[in-house]
Amino acid sequence: MSRRAQLESQGGQTGPLDIVLPGISALLAGRLYGFLALGSWITLLGIAWIRRARIVDLLAQPGWDGILALVSFVVLLAAAWLAGNRGRFRPAASQEAEAGRSPAALASRRFRRHHQAVLGLALLSAVTVVAVLTPILAPFDPDAMNLSTGRLLAPSAKNWMGTDELGRDLLSRVLYGARISLIIGFLAVSIAITLGTAIGAVAGYAGGWVDAILMRIVDLFLSFPRLVLLITVVAVFQPSIPLIVIVLGLTGWMGVSRLVRGQVLSVREREYVQAAHALGYGPGRVLGRHILPNVLTPVIVAATLGIGNAILAEAALSFLGLGVQPPTASWGNIIQSGGDRILDAWWISTFPGLAIVLTVMSFNLVGDGLRDALDPRHVE
Amino acid sequence: MGVCNRMVARSGGPTLIRYIGRRVLQAIPLLIGIVTLIFLILHLAPGDPTAIWFNPGIPPEVLDRMRANMGVDQPLHVQYVRWVKAFLSGDFGYSYTHFRPVRDVIGDALPSTLLLSGTSLLVIFGVGCVVGSLQALRQYRLTDSLLTFVTLFLYSMPGFWLGLMLILVASTSLSWLGLPVFGMTSVDHSLLGPLGKIADVAQHLVLPTIALGLASAAGVARYMRGEMLEVIEQDYIRTARAKGLPERTVILKHALRNALIPVVSLLGLYLPMLFGGALVIEVVFSWPGMGRLMYDGILTRDYPLVMAASFLFGALVVVGSLIADLLYALVDPRVRYE
């Protein structure tokens, strides 16, 4: 394909019909993004129609939860429309830049060709969207009990995943559990990444005895099974979501700090770093502006994989009754509540477990894909 | 044995012994660090130790005497030195709930945990290496893509959930297998002969071992696949084939052995995960090991037991990593004992 033709196929297909059905022209031209845009548009409108009663409720009595969900819904809808009509707004110049061969463009192309990674990203987006829109999507109040007639019902058309021992709708609880798991995973990994980057950077940059001491601390934390440490801490303090987030963060930074330290050691003596020193920049600026951008790639990969691990650890903790406390739904504590009656009501433990596997798997897929895509040595 | 002799002969004996000695010495500060960490966790807890586990109705002078008995009236550094000394000499105090020295309680539970972890390690590395190599040898074929998906699925699975699912399947559609889903021994265990006893425990081991090992096995398989793919491309493999060696020999003797070397280093990495996982799996299957003990200890606020168990888990990882390093030196002749 000539470069000109390639450029023309990059965006551009937009007709009048796209105002109502964004992406239809692109879809008819056989472009993937048209399918995605139109698919999201129709799905979102479908959700709005089916759950219209709930949306009206949320508008009538807005809580933080509801406002966030409604705003996210509008943002998603707008994003789908803009994606379908991108030919309308994008100047040719930016399309040309996109088709270029900058490292970012190359990495993005490698990522898009990595089928597993794309699948992972799709799954991850789906899980995230569902978690954000939960107040709209959940068919029932996750805490509403029905002790008389609704206990331990098998999955049916009304309760897709059945009900638990208190007659609460399992699907709604699993949906609300997604938010808790994702939030805990995300926050914990943010702490871990910040801490790991700081410690690794200081160790690598300072060297000498500072490095030696910090690396012994890393060894120490690595030799403690994460779950054992978590359980010990939670046993002494009272379990609460902030505590879990902090402890998960404090037990997840070691890998990142080793990564960052190694990378800092390898760039510390480069000419451009010495030039920055020679220009009189302080260590903070040299680290932040000249050294740390180099470690961004492996850290992003570590963060993606780390969220999956944090979700697994939180689930295990909640399963043991030391994590998120009922009645707040989390995947771990739902599995625990079904564990005793696994033979009578298999659905209680089964569905949240599948949700964990799906979520963690999508993080792993994306992490693997990013690692391959961002690795400049990667050859196809 | 042969390998050992060869290695000692090659490296001149004393070097290896000095290497082992140095690694053991390096483990000591790590153990002290673990004890310190546990000490810190306990002392960061709100209130003083007596307040956590005793009835608030106790008169103050009795509480003072209790504090004196427990040594918590001493300054912090005195307490700390005592604590480290006691832990490193294996004196873990007295269990509140078992009414026996913690050391004895743990001594009873440790073998079961080591048994479960041991069989799981066999599964992790046995299954992992076989599956990973198989995938590498079938690259770009259906077997590989299918197994890639399966290993990823298993790798993302929480072990305790897998355990529950195994219990469900073993007691419903697979109940004809007669696999026990609870505990380590049957009710009539003491009536069985020595062989029957072994068979009984082995049966009880099956499900917990799978639940504990499968996710990590999938991790090893993913790693092994990559290593094997790299090794197969090497010149010496082409040379081996060019020499006319049978494919079997090329794979087993030339490729597999070299691909296994880096996999051995995974052992140290997986140990913390293994012991952490054992804790939850033991709870799921009521396995009478350290994890179960620790969990019960937490529920009953038996702090000496919990602290000792968590120290022991840490110590097991340190010792395990030591063994892994030595093993690595053993399989890779290029490792210098520096």
Give a quick summary of the entry.
The complex is a heterodimer of chains A (380) and B (338). Chain A has 380 residues and is mostly helical.
Helix content of chain B: over 70%
Q: Which percent range fits the helix content of chain A?
A: over 70%
Poorly predicted ranges of chain A (pLDDT <50, ≥5 residues)? Answer: 4-11
Radius of gyration of chain A: 24 Å
Biggest sheet record of chain A: none
Our count of helices of chain B gives: 14
SSE class of chain B: mainly alpha
Radius of gyration of chain B: 24 Å
Please identify the structural class of chain A as seen in this structure.
mainly alpha
Task: Kindly report the greatest chain-chain contact and the residue count on each side.
Answer: A-B, 41 and 52 residues
Number of helices of chain A: 20
Task: Estimate the mean pLDDT confidence of chain B.
Answer: 83
- Give the ordered list of helices and strands of chain A: HHHHHHHHHHHHHHHHHHHH
Order of helices and strands of chain B: HHHHHHHHHHHHHH
Description of the structure:
The complex is a heterodimer of chains A (380) and B (338). Chain A is mostly helical. Chain A is 72% helix and 0% strand. In chain A, helix 11 (170-206) packs antiparallel against helix 12 and helix 11 runs parallel beside helix 20 (346-374). The longest helix of chain A is centred in the middle third of the chain and has 37 residues, at 170-206. Chain A is flat. With 338 residues, chain B is mostly helical. Helix content of chain B is 76%, strand content 0%. Chain B contains 14 helices and no strands. Chain B has helices at 2-11, 14-44, 49-53, 60-70, 76-88, 102-137, 142-155, 159-171, 194-232, 235-242, 247-264, 266-285, 290-299, 303-331. The longest helix of chain B is centred in the middle third of the chain and has 39 residues, at 194-232. Chain B is globular, with a radius of gyration of 24 Å. Residues 1-12 of chain B have low confidence and may be disordered. Classes of the chains: A mainly alpha (380), B mainly alpha (338). At the A-B interface, helix 12, helix 13, helix 18, helix 19 and helix 20 of A face helix 2, helix 7, helix 8, helix 12 and helix 13 of B.
